[in-house]
Design a protein that fits this description.
The protein has three domains: 3-141, TerB-like, CATH 1.10.3680; 250-477, Rossmann fold (3-Layer(aba) Sandwich), CATH 3.40.50.300; 503-710. Helices cover 62% and strands 8% of the residues. It contains 25 helices and twelve strands. The protein has helices at residues 3-10, 25-35, 42-55, 59-69, 78-84, 90-102, 109-122, 126-141, 157-207, 212-249, 266-274, 314-321, 347-352, 374-382, 397-411, 423-428, 438-445, 447-460, 462-543, 548-561, 564-601, 641-646, 663-752, 761-767, 793-800, and strands at 39-41, 254-260, 292-297, 300-304, 329-335, 357-362, 417-421, 609-611, 617-619, 768-774, 778-783, 803-808. The strands form three sheets. The protein has a seven-stranded mixed β-sheet with strand order 1-3-4-2-5-6-7. Strand 3 (292-297) and strand 4 (300-304) form a beta hairpin. The longest helix is centred in the last third of the chain and has 90 residues, at 663-752. The chain is elongated, with a radius of gyration of 42 Å.
């Protein structure tokens, strides 16, 4: 007996009748559990309504319940309700929540997460939750399926045999799908760990390098790369898990999902098919379905999805997309009065998932708003075929051709059926006031044609469509991470190849920049010394009779007047600046090329960007490496030139002498002697200064060259490590894709032969040699022996909505 039934028996209640009475937090928490898996199951609603009656909840609580079911932005969050629930009510509430989670037969991961979050808020142990799980599971198995179908689709014994055969095949196929998806998940997790480990090695290596800034820069770039990849890997892992959950949820059911733009008639179709949900349908009602609505009965599952393209409908489309993996057939509902190409954009997602499609054309004619009322209904019933005529100005032929044209653009083929129906007429056949016209209205609606389509989908094609869902479509979910890893590996290989080439280019450009700036420095120093040489004659003339001390002081002043020290500093600074600009320009050029690669290839490798003066963005190879050339300024040598050159005056005076020479002769000899000695010593010092300046300059440039080269080398090694990990994952995922394609091919061959045999690896290997598939479009099956199928090629293509061909391997 469930917790709810116990309370009904004991008449335990939480009466809420007054307008100002408190909210029933327990009931609202259970309501949140209904929506935890983004689906509202008919059994969940029945349980919730039963609980609502038993708990006698008040108006305020019912209003909050509707907000939760509608996923209104103003709903009370789970956390608020869980924290506010009194201790004494928590055991009962947890029991009811878990009964709600299990009532549809599948305790989903999202429902488990909801329970886990509440467990943590309540500070409960994991073991305490386990005490509630077994009774909740037992409650599911004791529930009788007392649903009443809205039609007699499943009354026929042939249907019963077909649906049981579908379930049997599904369980066999799920073994292969589950194994492939689990291996894919494990491969992606290994990829994540592998990238982390490889980059740790690189990081350790770079940190151990004496060039701390380069090591830090490389580590930052590789960390950005790792984080970018990890985000994608986590998404892929979650996608694989979601796919596995979806396949497992629907394993015992043949699932039909209704999709289409808002107000196209999906909820009406759902109500006609299930006999439920009439209260959600009415003129002017908006967005009656905010979550997927699920109805199950005797192994058939019908899902009503939110409207595509409703205001704020992006989240609605995501909800609709979430059901694709569970569906064996997608019924896309359109109307004949408002067809636009944008209404069919969603079909592209169906083709990406290789889902079989049927289009239901809901023919609009509103009897309800007519002032003539029943007269219009009777008039319609006299000639219902007129509404479905193909030819004429108001015929459906033009609408159908337009639907096919739009659908082909997004779905890729026109194998799908288009079934015109009038849902309003079928709806009217269920209303009490029209019971005398019930059969006529239902027949005139042409709903039977759609039911016949479903009949064929299940009885004739149900087994292969189950395999198509569990094997064929799962390939698409496997191909996404496979193609992603292959594309990423290729991008990283392209990047490393480009970086390797640019590494050599940069080395050559730095070498050329060193030579050019060094030559310029050499010429600048020569020019400065030439200015000193040019000044020697005038200095000698004015200082020929000075004492050695006075001459030294005069020479120091002369050099100051010539700005010798300042000019030497400026010369070295200009050489450094010129070198820095050339290196920066070269690195920025590489950056722009790599940015182009990133833009064209969609690289997950992340480079920092900055704006230039003309607002163009270029790629920085690291935030600090472009500035590394600027550190050359630290290598400017101490200016020793003044002291050395001043010292050359020493010994000049000793050459001035001679008692018998006149003053003019003494002056001439002294000037010549001073000039000669100064020129000799200045020339000698020029060679020494140039040699030392160039030596230090070249050493500084070589340090920059080494720094840049080390950066490129270590970055390339890190990116190569990532590429190798991606290639390894690609190879493993490709193997799983091939395995699923071969299993699916075996099912197609068996179906084409109109036979059944259990799906095993041995049987697959015995029949299937190779499969080449362009997912969702073409599939070429190579068999190991010559096979002649009983089904013709057109039937196979039309049913699978994919061009299938087969032949014996050469």
């Amino acid at each position: 007996m469930s917790q709810l039934e116990k309370e009904e028996e004991e008449n335990v209640s939480n009466p809420v009748t007054a307008a100002d009475e408190p909210l029933d937090y327990s009931f609202l928490l259970v309501t949140h559990m209904v929506c935890a898996d983004r689906q509202i199951h008919s059994k969940e609603l029945k349980y919730l309504h039963k609980l609502e009656r038993q708990a006698k909840v008040g108006q305020r609580t019912r209003e909050e319940k509707e907000k939760i079911l509608a996923q209104d932005e103003h709903l009370i969050p789970v956390e608020v309700l869980a924290k506010g629930l009194p201790q004494r009510q928590r055991n009962r509430t947890m029991a009811q929540m878990l009964e709600m989670a299990y009532i549809d037969g599948f305790y989903s991961p999202s429902e488990h997460q909801r329970v886990e979050s509440i467990r943590q808020i309540w500070n409960w142990s994991v073991d305490k939750i386990k005490n509630f799980l077994e009774p909740a599971q037992a409650y599911f198995f004791c529930i009788a399926d007392d649903s009443t179908p809205g039609n007699n689709l499943s009354e026929n014994p042939e249907y019963q045999r077909a649906i049981l055969r579908c379930a049997k095949i599904a369980h066999e196929d799920f073994i292969f799908a589950e194994a492939a998806l689990k291996k894919a998940g494990a491969t992606l997790e290994e990829l994540q760990i592998g990238i982390q480990e490889k980059l740790k090695v690189i990081e350790k290596k770079t940190i151990g390098n004496s060039r701390a800034e380069t090591a830090k820069e490389v580590a930052q770039q590789l960390e950005a790369t790792k984080q970018s990849l990890e985000v994608e890997i986590v998404k892929k892992i979650q996608s694989v898990r979601d796919t596995l959950d979806a396949k497992q949820r629907s394993i015992d059911y043949f699932t039909v999902a209704f999709m289409g733009k808002t107000k196209a008639g999906k909820s009406t179709l759902h109500a006609i098919m299930t006999g439920e949900g009439w209260d959600a349908i009415g003129v002017g009602k908006q967005r009656t379905t905010r979550l997927n609505r699920v109805y199950e009965w005797k192994n058939i599952r019908i899902i009503d999805t939110p409207g595509i393209g409703a205001p704020g409908g992006k989240s609605d489309e995501q909800i609709a997309q979430s059901i694709i993996n569970e569906s064996d057939v997608i019924c896309y509902v359109v109307t004949n009065d408002s067809q636009q190409e944008t209404d069919f954009n969603f079909l592209g997602l169906l083709k990406e998932n290789a889902k079989p499609l049927a289009i239901l054309l809901n023919v609009h004619k509103n009897f309800r708003d007519s002032r003539r009322g029943s007269y219009e209904v009777e008039r319609f019933l006299k000639n219902p075929e007129k509404l479905f005529a193909m030819d004429g100005a108001s015929g459906l032929g033009g609408h159908i051709e337009r639907i096919r044209r739009y659908a082909r653009q997004h779905y890729g083929n026109d194998y799908f059926d288009i079934v015109p129906v009038m849902l309003l007429a079928a709806h009217l056949s269920y209303e009490p006031q029209n019971q005398h016209l019930k059969d006529q209205l239902f027949k005139a609606s042409q709903m039977q044609k759609f039911l016949d389509y479903l009949w064929l989908s299940i009885v004739e094609y149900g087994d292969i469509r189950r395999s198509q869902n569990l094997l064929g479509c799962t390939v698409g979910d496997m191909e996404k991470p496979y193609k992603w890893s292959a594309e990423e590996a290729k991008k990283y290989k392209i990047l490393t190849k480009k970086l390797t080439k640019e590494r050599e280019t940069i080395k050559n450009k730095i070498k050329q920049a060193t030579n050019d700036s060094g030559d310029s420095l050499k010429n600048q120093i020569a020019s400065i010394f030439q200015a000193v040489l040019n000044d020697i004659p005038s200095f000698a003339e004015s200082h020929w009779d000075y004492s050695e001390t006075a001459m030294k002081e005069g020479w120091e002043q002369e050099l100051r007047n010539l700005r010798f020290e300042k000019r030497m500093y400026i010369a070295y600074q200009e050489a450094i600046t010129s070198f820095t600009k050339e290196v920066q320009a070269s690195l920025e050029e590489v950056g722009r090329e790599l940015q182009l690669i990133a833009n064209l290839g969609g690289l997950t490798f992340t480079f920092d960007q900055q704006d230039t003066g003309n607002e163009r963005k270029f790629l920085q190879i690291g935030g600090g490496i472009l500035a590394v050339a600027g550190t050359l300024m630290a290598f400017i040598p101490p200016l020793m030139a003044v002291g050395l050159v001043v010292g050359i005056v020493g010994g000049v005076i000793s050459f001035i002498g001679g008692l018998f020479k006149d003053k003019a002769e003494k002056r001439r000899e002294a000037v010549d002697n001073i000039s000669r000695k100064l020129r000799e010593q200045v020339n000698n010092q020029r060679q020494t200064t140039v040699s030392k300046a160039l030596e230090q300059f070249v050493k500084a440039c070589e340090d920059v060259k080494t720094e840049v080269d080390t950066y490129f080398r270590e970055l390339i090694e890190g990116l190569d490590a990532i590429a190798l990990q991606l290639q390894s994952a690609q190879s493993k995922l490709e193997g799983e894709v091939n395995q699923l394609n071969r299993a699916y091919a075996k099912r197609i061959i068996d179906w084409g032969l109109k036979r059944y045999e259990p799906l095993t690896q041995e049987r697959i290997d015995r029949v299937i040699a190779q499969v080449n598939r362009e997912f969702g479009r073409t599939m070429i099956i190579k068999t190991k022996s010559l096979i002649q199928l009983e089904r013709n090629q057109k039937e196979i293509n039309d049913v699978l909505q994919e061009k299938i061909s087969y032949s014996k391997r050469d």
